[in-house]
Every structure is written in C-alpha cells, then in structure tokens.
Amino acid sequence: VSNILRKLMKKKKRCPSIITRVRHKWLYFAPILILIAVFAFLHTHKWRNDILVYSVTPINAEQTSTTLMSYNPNTHESATIVTVEGKYLRFRISRGGRLAYSFTVDTYAEIHVRDSLSPNALSINITETLTPFHAEVMGWSPDGHYLVFYTRNEDRTARIYVWDGTEIIDITPT
C-alpha cells in the first residue's frame, strides 16, 4: 500500500490556485486589450508637422467637457486648442493646417472650423443652420479647400455635405 501511495504522490500534479488561473486568463486577453487600446489611441489623434493633436474625453458621466490638445515632442510642450461642452469630439486636420471638429451636446451636434491649431484662432460653426442630431467630419479635400461631413437627424435620415468655405452644398445621393 505504501508503494502505491508513493507512486501516486510522484504522479500527482499540483492544481494551480485561483490566482494563477486568473493570471493566465488575463495574459490570454492582454494582446487583445493592447490592440484595442492602440486602435483607440490612433483613432483619437493625428500628427501635423511634428505636432500631435489629440482629444481628451471625459471618463465619468458628470464631466461633460471634451478638450482638444496639441503636443510638440521637440519642445515637450502641451497646449489646449479648444474645450467644448460636449462629448464625442471628432476632428480632421487639412494639409494646410485647418482644423475641423465635431461634437455632440445632449440633443444636437455642431461642426466647427478653425484656420489654425492656435488656441486664439477664430472658430466658425458651419452647421448652425442645419441643427443636426448627430454630425461628424469625414475629411478635407487634398488641397484643403473643401470639407466633407455628414449629419443625421432624429428620424435617422443621413445627409452628406461639402463646405467650400462659404456655403454648404448637399451632395447626398438620391
């Protein structure tokens, strides 16, 4: 009987503890979580002439303002470009340095355009006459003169527009 017990003791494998099992599961999901974090970062920042532009979105529900910031890696300086009282800040930068950004506030959305990344630049609300429920900047033309964006109303009808610097042109296919 003692020989049988000794053989069983030698063959007995240690059962990993709960902590070890949880740690192994965390390591299994870690690469996926890292990819999601990298994608989220790449989606919310852009480089323009050695300056990183990124948005800082509120984490908790009480905070309603979102900030668009710039960082210069050469001088290690950060600056606030604009702070908006809203969430879901999306932005695009033209090759010429013009900034277009959209954000949502409760029941409406706005798209603003600025001629530079400077905090003192004048901001123009180009969707003031549209009053959409949701709006998002899609992109600038290669020469930086035209901005394409879309809006969606409360009834979920979507429209695509081009802004030429003075007027908005509806280009939604019929």
**How many strands in all?**
12
Give the helix proportion (percent range): 10-25%
Count of individual helical segments: 2
User: How would you write the strand order of the largest sheet?
Assistant: 1-2-3-4
- What is the gyration radius calculated from CA atoms? 25 Å
| Secondary-structure element string | HHEEEEEEEEEEEE
> What percentage of the residues does DSSP assign to strands (E)?
35-45%
Q: For the report, how would you describe the main beta sheet?
A: 4 strands, antiparallel
The geometry reads as globular
Structural class: alpha+beta
**Mean pLDDT, rounded to whole units?**
76
| Uncertain parts | 15-26, 38-43
Distance between the termini: 87 Å
Describe the protein's architecture and organization:
- The protein is α+β, with helices and mostly antiparallel strands and 174 residues long.
- The chain is 21% helix and 41% strand.
- The strands form 3 sheets. Strands 1-2-3-4 form a 4-stranded antiparallel β-sheet.
- The N and C termini lie far apart (87 Å).
- Mean pLDDT is 76; it is low at 15-26 and 38-43.
What's the gist of this structure?
With 174 residues, the protein is α+β, with helices and mostly antiparallel strands.
List keywords for this structure.
alpha+beta, 2 helices, 174 residues
List the topology elements:
Elements: H1 2-11, H2 18-43, E1 45-48, E2 51-56, E3 66-72, E4 77-84, E5 87-93, E6 99-105, E7 108-114, E8 123-125, E9 134-140, E10 147-152, E11 158-163, E12 168-170
